[in-house]
Specification:
This protein is mainly beta. The chain is built from 2 helices and 10 strands. The two termini are 23 Å apart.
């Protein structure tokens, strides 16, 4: 049974970063690469039209590494990474499901991704989505 689209609110720990995201597909990805493991990021990749930043950009800063394609956005006050621009989909927004308000994790099917071997496996993610 397919779930209906729903608007979720979310943000960082201190509340300086707030957003809304329209969820149409209730599938998230857990990546085992070094940065995702350390951040505990659960990836929900959405189009920019499905994402609305409610707070201003003053509390946000970015971190980049390796190819500098991904823009790892985080709150400069509390350090929480609630969303970012992913290397895998640079025209999308990647929302951390763990940063959505309330107890919503059970709403999502979590799939594993071998990001430790990113180059060899990225086509698996791209093929699953009609991007």
């Amino acid at each position: 049974m397919k779930k209906e689209a729903r608007i979720y609110s979310g943000g960082c720990h201190c509340g300086s970063v707030r957003f809304q995201v329209e969820v149409k597909e209730y599938k998230a990805t857990e990546c085992n690469c070094s940065i995702c493991t350390k951040k505990g990021f659960l990836h929900l990749i959405v189009s920019p039209e499905q994402f609305l930043l409610l707070s201003d950009n003053e509390s946000l800063t970015n971190y980049t590494f390796n190819t500098h394609t991904a823009k790892h956005t985080f709150c400069r006050i509390c350090g929480i990474h609630s969303f970012y621009t992913p290397r895998s989909h640079p025209n999308k927004i990647d929302v951390n499901v763990r940063c959505l308000d309330g107890d919503v994790l059970a709403d999502f099917q979590i799939e594993s991704f071998d990001g430790q071997n990113w180059e060899a496996n990225i086509t698996q993610i791209r093929e699953k989505e009609s991007i």
